[in-house]
Fold:
Amino acid sequence: MTKRDAALDVLRSLAPGTPLRRAVELILSQDSGALIVLGYGPDIEGICSGGFHLEGAQFSPARLAELAKMDGAVILEEGGEMIRRANVHLIPDPDIPTLETGTRHRTAERVAVQTGRPVVVVSQGRSMVTVYTRRGKHELRSPTALLEQANQNLLTLERFRWRLNEVESRLTQLEVDDVVACRDVVRVLQRAALVHHIARDLEHYSVELGGEGQLTRIQLEDLITGVKETAEQVYVDYARTFPPQTRQPLDLLEGLSTEHLGDPSRVASLLGLGPLDARMRPRGYRALNRVPRLPETVKSSLVARFGELQSLLRASVGDLDEVEGVGRARARQLRHYFDRLLESNRAWAVDEA
Structure:
């Protein structure tokens, strides 16, 4: 499991309606604070002092809320089914840096960093719940605030997805006209990566909302359908080698901030695409992916045989039929598709004029 998956699992366990979230809400309602460690093992036992063991104590929201009335930390099994220790004084490594000021928050951050176990802090009097992991901290928000932010992000995602469709369509026009520059390719991949980044944030919202985030999840899935496929096909078309070692460029761009994604030179360099003004020619892989029921092996054979889209567009039925796996019927289908693509591009040129 990746660190990212682990962070989502913590949010999922604290979503509205879950037993752990009900326990947190009970603690807040009784105006008491809490420090809750989600996970138990020798690493946790090694930093525990005092308190008492609870052998075989089943977890329940009410039981955890009662134990939280004591000053010390409560330690749960990783899955949350059992309560292992209560009223514990935690002594993490004091040399671990922290910017937190409250005692509970300092301890929680250091425990999370030192052991990798998520730690939940319920702040007494401030009605605030903070989750610490090795990746940082996350403040739980009310479902109302989450839904409002999720809806705003959905609108942003919708705009960026529309823009992605627009620049991809424009790239197709340029490819047929054989006037593609590296900058045009990067623009599509930038938009796809930005959509992916916004979707990642929305995934957090939908997980944190639990059952109340079902509509958000459905809308999110609709908006990101096909984005990874588009990015892969564009990258395979223009990467220096075919097939590229990594087919998915969004994985290569995952670590870039939104600010750095806005720098086309940085994106082009990271993907190994060359100077922004350099002329480029697609292999035709993305165009072939639009042909219904065309096997992957046949696409690869066509790309290997013709080398670039312009050669495919000029190929006769006989030329296409010579490629292994194509056959006469499929060759006619391909020629018909290329003719329609050329005709569509002529229509686009008339509209722009």
Q: What stands out?
A: The chain has three domains: 3-140, 144-280, 285-339. Strands lie at 34-38, 48-49, 52-58, 73-76, 82-90, 119-123, 128-133, 136-139, 180-181, 279-280. The chain is about 55% helix and 15% strand. The mean pLDDT is 89.
